[in-house]
Specification:
Blueprint (H helix, E strand, L loop, with lengths): L1 E2 L2 E4 L2 E4 L13 H15 L8 H17 L11 H11 L3 H7 L1
Antiparallel strand pairs: 1-2, 2-3
């Protein structure tokens, strides 16, 4: 039996290393690219970390920056927040749709 990466055979349970099939490499491409950026932009820049707490704190800040403030070339060098704000401003509201109807 196969359920989300868990295989049961002969009454024993094995955890699979990947739930993707052969040829599914592109499924992981975005995550691998993001992890690569994280390592280059944060982890490898600091020569010596004071400890796990510092790595966790700085990682959380990097993720916040990456998701909210980082400029993306694919969306006109805007931050995700700026892009989403502009997108929402261009979408019609329910009230404006009802006025037209």
């Amino acid at each position: 039996m196969h359920v989300a990466g868990v295989h049961r055979s002969s009454g024993r349970v094995r955890i699979a290393g990947s739930i993707g099939g052969v040829g599914d490499a592109l499924d992981n491409a975005l995550m691998e690219s993001t992890i690569g950026l994280y390592k280059i932009e944060l982890i490898d820049r600091v020569r010596s970390w004071s400890g796990r707490a510092e790595v966790e704190r700085e990682s959380a800040e990097w993720v916040r920056w990456f998701n909210a403030d980082r400029l993306h070339s694919s969306i006109g060098y805007l931050s995700p927040i700026e892009y989403e704000t502009g997108y929402r401003e261009q979408r019609p509201t329910v009230a404006s749709i009802l006025e037209v109807a």
